[in-house]
Amino acid sequence: MFSLAPILVFLTAGASVILGESDVQDRLFAKVQEVYGDSVLMIVQGLVEGFVQPGSGKLATGISAITILYGATRVFVQLQDA
Prior knowledge:
4 helices, 85% helix
């Protein structure tokens, strides 16, 4: 569950630039509720609202993007070497 928070922050911030923050959050919350139910929805809402604050996420989004790309690249390198 702890790895879900950075991914949600990155995806929400990135998609908010294109679609608008409230629309992205509404879609995310609706899909989580549909798939996982109300108990998980409350957890995800807390994660997103706790990490996504207007105007303060650009640096965090950049760092998250770099970290995710680096991690994914390392995983693929390790898989190719195996």
